[in-house]
Amino acid sequence: METDGGRGVVVVVTTDGVRKGCGGHNRCRGRAAVEFLERSCTAEFSGFLLYKELGRRLKKTNPVVAEIFSLMSRDEARFLNKGLSDFNLALDLGFLTKARKYTFFKPKFIFYATYLSEKIGYWRYITIYRHLKENPEYQCYPIFKYFENWCQDENRHGDFFSALMKAQPQFLNDWKAKLWSRFFCLSVYVTMYLNDCQRTAFYEGIGLNTKEFDMHVIIETNRTTARIFPAVLDVENPEFQRKLDRMVAINEKLQDIGQSDDNGLVKNLKRVPLIAAFVS
């Protein structure tokens, strides 16, 4: 894998030494691909930290569960890190443990959020894999060929958290559980949609429509989540995507304000009505 002459176009070097550029409609921008790997690797590393810490803390009180968490921590980001080495890049992931503050969350919140994170990760990666398998002309990076096996890590991790929640029925069987379930679904879905709509180059580069891809992932994740969560969102209602798109438009205006030459006070005043519209 290399980039061609500073243009940022990914070039695949096959096992027989043939250089195959991703030109025309098969163009996958090198910078966009690298950014996708970097974001994915950083997100996976947060899972590594969580599982490693849980494995350490549970070692004496519940050694079986501790071992499972230790094995799960091993899975996180192992393929993505190797992928970055193709670009002669390496993330200083250890920096995150020193520079970022740790926040305490109650176990049930970790269960909800992490279950969703693993399942939505599975649907993202398996959808990309299936799309590229059906459309090999967009296959411009070898790591995507291995997404089918790798994304099963995400799926199994989610299943493990499903088992943990079933073993703690108080996390699923009251009115507060319904509210928290819907809250975390909304938070995870909105975050993914807004982030991806800011970075469409990668998805468009492999032949995906970003919004259609995200809605497919959200719908499938929501259907899977409905098997365990006491309540989920009605994401298949067209009104749901309409509101997501409205948030994307507001978020773009907020970004424009942040990048403007106005002073801080003026920027904050301009943000107020947009933030009010964002949460309404």
TrEMBL record:
GO BP annotation list: chlorophyll biosynthetic process; photosynthesis
Keyword NADP attached: yes
Catalytic reaction(s) noted: Mg-protoporphyrin IX 13-monomethyl ester + 3 NADPH + 3 O2 + 2 H(+) = 3,8-divinyl protochlorophyllide a + 3 NADP(+) + 5 H2O
An annotated Gene Ontology molecular function: metal ion binding
Superkingdom of source: Eukaryota
Keywords: Chlorophyll biosynthesis, Iron, Metal-binding, NADP, Oxidoreductase, Photosynthesis
GO cellular component: chloroplast thylakoid membrane
Enzyme category, top tier: oxidoreductase
Pfam families to which the protein is assigned, alphabetical: Rubrerythrin (PF02915)
InterPro entries assigned: AcsF, Ferritin-like_SF, Rr_diiron-bd_dom
Pathway entry: Porphyrin-containing compound metabolism; chlorophyll biosynthesis
Required co-factors: Fe cation
Rubrerythrin diiron-binding domain sequence ranges: 35-165
Keyword Kinase: no
Enzyme Commission number(s) from the entry: 1.14.13.81
Similarity section: Belongs to the AcsF family.
Alphabetized PANTHER family for the sequence: MAGNESIUM-PROTOPORPHYRIN IX MONOMETHYL ESTER [OXIDATIVE] CYCLASE, CHLOROPLASTIC (PTHR31053:SF2)
Protein name: magnesium-protoporphyrin IX monomethyl ester (oxidative) cyclase
